[in-house]
Structures are given as structure tokens and as C-alpha cells.
Design goal:
The protein is built from 19 helices and no strands. The chain is mostly helical and 426 residues long. The protein has one domain: MFS general substrate transporter like domains (Growth Hormone, Chain: A), CATH 1.20.1250. The longest helix is centred in the middle third of the chain and has 31 residues. The chain is globular and about 60 Å long.
Length: 426
């Protein structure tokens, strides 16, 4: 396979840039920072975890409502980059603002986190849709997988710097508080995200589009309505989205609530940060491995593998008690976290009409985001009712089972079938 083009590398590099937000804000430092602030305000661990789950649900609901509408408008020539720029700027700015909010204002922290999350997820909608512009269908699995792999590798650098500052502050080796150290991590994240997005702005352009016309907003709603009326025409695509709705719910919930879950189990913040760092390192080669194995066995079969591994994760989480158990759980997640997301993205990209990529990735977003509302709510409600976070994670297994059963009914993209035949004959 030929080397990556400038456009492919620039697209891949955005994962390197934005994944700093995913690990530091969504997964590691901010949840711990928020949990400490909520605890100091007298909120119980189960309730603070539930409030975080509700906040994630609100953020994802907002974007789920906007995704298909904005995506349909963005299919017009020149609009995709504009929408990407707006949400990217929103995410970076409010990530930076988190550093200037007093640590005792836990509710304000959650509000600003909501805005930053909308910005991050919104930018990803249009970033994912750029996949059809930068590469061919035959290369999508590998390019998408390399994006996630570079994301894991790139995120470890600001993550290591951030946790080093936090640990040094905790050990009183440097004369700052842990609170200040966490706020420095928020600033590092915003800067990293902003600087390393420059290649995408310079080199990635919208190649597939619908020519501009008068009243683009009105006509976008008409096109969206037409797509919904002709849904049978895209049966394979929407059947995949239903499967994706279920299994990605569990994936996203486990990612976004892992540190809050670990805190409830009594695992120290230092141990949690180290575990998350190792998870990122292990996930990088496995994401590439999924991409390469998808060329040998097809993307759909590798999605089966990822879903089954996550079902094992849910079962193991129910019996989880010790830090060692959490380590084992994290390593299981690391083997499939990037692969299942990367192959879902490329599988969907092969099914969509390229000139309507934004519209359909808007649907991809709405299915993924509505699923992300259900998962955190399920974990939050279960945690409050049972007083036990393990039960909430275990309940996610139902979503993986349903997702797997529906995915089995989705036909293979033609390019995957052709590639599979070539590998078999070879």
C-alpha cells in the first residue's frame, strides 16, 4: 500500500490534536477535578457520578439535535470547513475557560464542560465527514485506524506532562496546589488541540459537495426531509446506524465515566492517571492492528470481535473489586477501544453517498449521541438506586448484545467484500 498523502496525514493528525481533550478533559483530569470539587461541596460519590452522567447526557442531546441539520447545510460547497472551525473554536475556548473557574464552583464547572463537550463532539462530526474527501474507499479502514492510533499516541504527550505536574504538586516537589496543577492541564489541552489542528486547516479541503443555491437553510431542511422519506433506499446504512446506536453507547459510557467509576471503587487518583496513560499506549498499536486485520477478515468481522470483547468487559466489571481488577479491565478496553471506533467510522463512510457525507455523518452523530444519552443515564440511575457503580456498568451488556444481533444483518460494503476476496485468493 502506498504511503499516506499530505491530505491523509493532515486528517490523521487531527486525532493527534483533539485526543488530548478526550483523555484529559473527558476521561482523566477533569472528572477527578470535578469529583473533588463536588465532594468538598458535600455531595455523595454516587450523586456526583450521577450528575456527571446527566451533564454528559445534556451535552450529547444538544449536539444530537443539531447534527443532521448542520450536516445537511454543510454539504454545500465551502460550508464543511466553516462548521468544523466554529465547533473546534468553541471546544478550545471553553476548555481553556475551565482553568479560570474557581474549584468550589462545581455547577459552573459542569456548565462550561457541557459547552466544551458540544464543541469537541461537533468538530468531530465534520472531521469524520472529511474522511471521504481525503482518501479512497479501499484505504478508509487503514486511514481511520491510523487516526485513532495517532490520537492515542499524541494524547499521551500532554497527558504525561499534565499528570507529572499534578503528581509533583501532590508530592509538594513544586510549590503549587493540586488544583492549580489541574488547571494548568486544562490550558495545556487547549493549546495542544489548537496548535496541532493547523495541518488540517492548511491541507484538507471539501472535495465532495452540493453546489450552492439560494435559501440554503430552507433547501437543506427539504433535502433532510427527502432523505427521511427515502429511508428504504438507504436500508443498509440505517440498519448499521441502529446497530451502532446500541454498541457505541456502551463504548462511549465506559470511556467517559471510567475515572468516576474507578474513584467510587476507592482507586487513588494517581493510580487512575497511570492506568489511563498505559491504556492509551496499549490502545495505539491495537487500533492499527484492527485496521490491518480488517483488510484480511473484513471490517464487519473485526467489529464483531470488538463488541464481544466489550461484553466480556461488562461481565468482568460486575465482579471488579481491586486496583488489579481495574488494571485488567482497562487493558481489555485498550485492545478494542480504538479499533471498534475506527472501523465503525470507516464502515459508515463506505456506505454514504460522498456528496451527502455531512448529512449522513449528522445521522451518524445523532445515533451515536442519543446512545450516549442513554448509557450515562442508565449508569447514573442504577448507581443511585443500588448504591453500586458495578451494577450500572454490567447493565451495558444488553446494549452490546442487541448491537451485535443487528450488525449481523447489515450487508458488507462492496469494497470490503472485494478486498476480502483478494486476500483469500492471495
Amino acid at each position: 500500500m502506498k504511503r499516506f498523502s499530505k491530505e491523509e496525514n493532515s486528517w490523521i493528525f487531527y486525532d493527534w490534536a483533539s485526543s488530548a481533550y478526550s483523555i484529559i478533559i473527558s476521561t482523566a483530569v477533569f472528572p477527578l477535578f470535578y469529583k473533588a470539587a463536588a465532594t468538598n461541596a458535600g455531595i455523595s460519590p454516587a450523586n456526583s457520578t450521577a450528575y456527571l452522567g446527566y451533564t454528559i447526557a445534556i451535552a450529547t442531546f444538544i449536539l444530537a439535535m443539531l447534527g443532521p441539520i448542520l450536516g445537511t447545510i454543510a454539504d454545500y460547497q465551502g460550508f464543511k470547513k466553516r462548521f468544523f472551525s466554529f465547533f473546534f473554536s468553541l471546544g478550545v475556548i471553553f476548555t481553556g475557560i475551565l482553568a479560570f473557574i474557581p474549584s468550589d464552583q462545581w455547577l459552573l464547572l459542569l456548565i462550561c464542560y457541557t459547552v466544551a463537550a458540544v464543541g469537541s463532539a461537533g468538530a468531530n462530526v465534520f472531521y469524520d465527514a472529511f474522511l471521504v474527501d481525503v482518501t479512497t474507499e479501499e484505504r478508509m479502514n487503514r486511514i481511520s485506524a491510523h487516526g485513532f492510533s495517532f490520537g492515542y499516541i499524541g494524547s499521551t504527550i500532554p497527558f504525561v506532562i499534565s499528570i507529572a505536574i499534578i503528581i509533583l504538586a501532590q508530592s509538594e516537589i513544586i510549590p503549587i496546589s493540586t488544583t492549580i496543577a489541574s488547571k494548568i492541564a486544562f490550558i495545556i489541552t487547549a493549546l495542544w488541540w489548537a496548535v496541532f489542528t493547523i495541518p488540517l486547516f492548511k491541507n484538507v479541503q471539501q472535495r465532495y459537495y452540493i453546489k450552492r443555491e439560494s435559501n440554503p437553510v430552507v433547501n437543506s431542511f427539504k433535502r433532510l426531509g427527502k432523505t427521511l422519506r427515502e429511508i428504504r433506499k438507504y436500508r443498509a446504512l440505517f440498519l448499521f446506524l441502529i446497530a451502532y446506536f446500541f454498541y457505541i453507547d456502551g463504548v462511549g459510557t465506559i470511556i467517559t465515566m471510567s475515572t468516576a467509576y474507578g474513584t467510587d471503587l476507592g482507586i487513588s487518583s494517581t493510580n487512575l492517571l497511570i492506568i489511563l496513560f498505559v491504556t492509551q499506549v496499549v490502545a495505539a498499536p491495537f487500533a492499527i492492528l484492527y485496521g490491518r486485520l480488517s483488510e484480511r477478515f473484513t471490517g464487519k468481522k473485526m467489529l464483531y470481535v470488538g463488541i464481544i470483547i466489550y461484553m466480556i468487559v461488562c461481565i468482568y466489571a460486575y465482579f471488579l473489586k481491586t486496583t488489579l481488577d481495574f488494571w485488567i479491565l482497562a487493558m481489555l478496553v485498550a485492545t478494542s477501544q480504538g479499533g471498534i471506533q475506527a472501523l465503525s467510522r470507516s464502515y459508515f463512510a463506505k456506505l454514504v453517498p460522498k456528496e451527502k457525507a455531512n448529512e449522513f455523518f449528522g445521522f451518524y452523530n445523532i445515533f451515536g449521541k442519543f446512545a450516549s444519552i442513554m448509557g450515562p443515564l442508565l449508569v447514573g440511575v442504577t448507581a443511585q438506586l443500588t448504591g453500586d457503580s458495578n451494577s450500572g456498568v454490567f447493565s451495558l451488556i444488553l446494549l452490546f448484545i442487541v448491537g451485535l444481533l443487528i450488525l449481523i444483518r447489515v450487508p458488507e460494503p462492496k469494497t470490503d467484500l472485494a478486498s476480502h476476496v483478494d486476500h483469500k485468493s492471495f
